[in-house]
Amino acid sequence: MRQTYSPGEVAFVDFAGKRIQIKDPESGKLTWVEIFVLVLGYSQYIFAYAVNSQKTEDFCLAQQKGFEFLGCVPRAIVPDNLKAAVIKAGKEPHLNAAYEEFADHHGTTIEPARVRKPKDKSLGELGVLLVTRWITVVLRRRTFFSIEELNKEIARLLVVLNNRPFKRFPGSRYQRFHEVERAAMQPLNSTAFEYGSWSYNRTVGKDYHVDIEGHFYSIPYQFRHEKVDVKVCADKVEIYQNHEHLTTHKRSFVVNGTTTNNDHRPYNHKKYAQMHKSFFLAWASGIGEGAIKVVSEQFKNKSDHSSKACQACEKLKVLENDYGVTRFEKACECALRIHSPTYTSIKSILQCRIDEHEIVEEGGEGNLPEHSNIRGPEYYKGLRGSHV
């Protein structure tokens, strides 16, 4: 019995049996690539695309390219029972989670072909046959140095194939698609699907980080010791719980490294995380070179987590808040010129308004007013001399 389909109803997807080789231009190594084929049920309009493998990631990529080629989406997709689409075939097939996510993203459904029911996928097999005959066999005679180069040639030959006249009824695949079927298709999602591999029921540590491929990513501390699901994409990591998005991080390939969003920390941890040289230098960089040098002086010969240095920097932040960025930066420059970049000296400079007068000359201590907390280099020279 001949299978008939209404416009926009279904697309059949599969990989062709024959592959094509890509030659590495430097090493000369030959690599086989797979040819993906999509055929629409009503118009029999065909799309083909070369990918590196039949894995789910490449399977989804090829279909994304297919939908972009069409500019629209069918109401259903019929794949063969390859592992990229179907984990376990049967009356109630177990679908690949990432493939289901792809279908959900585009608002379509997956209807796997039944096992040992060739009529379920007859159009898909016809599409594979035509692509093999008119594209694959032709291109296997040529040498390609990249998959991009190959796909350009496939696209060129697709135009020829889709414009070939039908033998049994008027028109071509191109005409039937553009004149009838396209209007009945669903709109294409404006955002391209981004493939990610899923990992389920990962336990969050007491430090509110979860181990993903040997790297530790933070989630809000309220989820410590709980289970989460993780989606790993090419350049980012997404973390969910019960289908609710918790956070997204830039993907890192540093084994045993840590990526932490400061907003995920409890208050006391946030405070401790700030007590570090890098934090205070980042703050100072928003003020000026004088502030940067003063902060660096606080950590001179001390560890980056020195409590004494951090306390001094916290006090300096208070001064900057009280007196403003401009005056604080000038006070830092003044303190550096008299070789006394301490909190006490900078505070005195600000209180005495010394920073507001250009009285400190380049290369000297200048004529600073007397103040018990402002001590120039001569003071320290005198101290050293008294012990000789």
TrEMBL record:
Molecular function via GO: nucleic acid binding
Family: Belongs to the transposase IS21/IS408/IS1162 family.
Organism, scientific name: Pseudoalteromonas rubra
Any Pfam family: rve
Domain Integrase catalytic, first and last residues per copy: 3-182
GO terms, biological process: DNA integration
PROSITE patterns: INTEGRASE
Descriptive protein name: Integrase catalytic domain-containing protein
NCBIfam families named in the record: transpos_IS21 (NF033546)
